[in-house]
């Protein structure tokens, strides 16, 4: 079984490959995502949402990862086709049995909303 850090590393590797379907392997069936631009429940709806997001993602540059037991906080620059500059993002995930159960993203959505 993956550690929480390994789970979230696999999550962001899927982002870099723009492979939303591969994320099913690291998301719990009842995963809940919360962020400035929405709330999504369940693995199917999360993967569908990520299909849309990954269509504009050009890169994810992880700056730092903090791990505290089952909680993983990843600080990264999100590069997209919708913004000129990267969007500094913090992702806080709670991982149970090698799968992310909750994910909270924290970022300033204004650059994405301006498009």
Automatic annotation (TrEMBL):
Domain of life: Bacteria
Record-linked InterPro entries: NTF2-like_dom_sf (IPR032710), SnoaL-like (IPR037401)
Residue ranges of every copy of the SnoaL-like domain listed in the record: 9-99
Protein name listed in UniProt: Nuclear transport factor 2 family protein
Native source organism of the sequence: Actinomycetospora rhizophila
């Amino acid at each position: 079984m993956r550690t929480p850090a390994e789970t979230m590393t696999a999550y962001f590797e899927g982002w870099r490959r723009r492979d939303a379907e591969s994320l099913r392997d690291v998301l719990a069936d009842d995963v809940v995502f919360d962020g400035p631009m929405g709330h999504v429940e369940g693995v199917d709806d999360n993967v569908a949402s990520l299909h849309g997001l990954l269509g504009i993602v050009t890169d994810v540059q992880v700056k730092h990862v903090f791990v505290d037991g089952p909680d993983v906080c990843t600080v990264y620059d999100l590069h997209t086709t919708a913004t000129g500059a990267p969007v500094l993002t913090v992702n806080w995930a709670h991982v149970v049995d090698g799968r992310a159960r909750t994910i909270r993203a924290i970022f300033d959505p204004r650059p994405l909303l301006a498009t």
